[in-house]
Amino acid sequence: MVRVLVLDNPFPPHEGLRGRLTAEPGLTVVGQAATGAEAISMSTTLGPDVVLVGSRFPGVDALEVIRRIARPPVPRPLASAHRPAPEEAPPPRVLALAPAADREYALGTLRAGAVALLTDGATPDELVAAVREVAAGNTVLSPDVPRAIVEAVRRKSAVRYDEQLTRLQGLTRRERDVLVAIASGHSNAEIADRLSIAPSTVKTHVGRVMNKIEARTRVQAVTFAYESGLLRAAACG
């Protein structure tokens, strides 16, 4: 059973995100939060697998809430000679909805740690499918998202550009090819076929790329590819 925590402000209630998920087999909505404080507290106490952040969740709080849920500052208990340190439970995986016109917010959710992003025009079936994919450990991006990232990157200041360029220059030519393929939405199997290399080699390259660009998820790798100019350069080349 996939446990989902919903962050949403439903008006009217029957049209809210919770209502779309409640009747779905294999999914259970463990709670709904309408404020940032509630969201952070409930994500800790209820132990959801997926946190769904609605586009109507208060915008002032949303990015910081995503950051604190996806990357909680939980101190790890110290081990002793008689008691090893317990395993840390992984944080919930965050699926965010963003208004199609708010490109800066869409980009912000990915930077904050969301592993999946849909526009708020997603159908109920698309939403349910995305929740299941996220719970299975996969990344989901709405088809509109890459364009949203491009537009946001064009308008943002280039404060981080030098840092991104330095990381980009640390990639080999093959690793750049792999990153372009990741940012274009290809799976490891598709990358192997596209580059005529073994799937095991792709997995090795992906691991090295993620480490070098300091990305924890494929969504963050997509963002890096646009921010560093790699994907646009590859398209022009």
Radius of gyration, Cα only, in angstroms? 19 Å
Number of helices: 12
Name of the CATH superfamily of the largest domain: Response regulator
Describe the largest sheet: 6 strands, parallel
The CATH architecture category of the largest domain equals 3-Layer(aba) Sandwich
- Give average pLDDT, whole number: 80
Poorly predicted regions are: 76-81, 233-237
Shape: globular
Report the CATH topology name of the largest domain: Rossmann fold
Secondary-structure-based class equals alpha/beta
Q: How much helical structure, as a percent, in the residues? A: 40-55%
- The side-by-side strand order for the widest beta sheet comes to 2-1-3-4-5-6
Number of strands: 6
Q: What does it look like?
A:
The structure is a single chain. By secondary structure, the chain is an alpha/beta fold. It folds into two domains: 2-73 and 90-145, Rossmann fold (3-Layer(aba) Sandwich); 157-236, Rossmann fold (3-Layer(aba) Sandwich). The chain is built from twelve helices and six strands. A six-stranded parallel beta sheet has the order 2-1-3-4-5-6. Helix 3 runs parallel beside helix 4 (103-112), helix 8 packs across helix 9 (188-195) and helix 8 packs across helix 10. It starts with a strand and ends with a helix. 33% of the residues are buried.
Q: Quick recap of the structure?
A:
The chain has 12 helices and 6 strands.
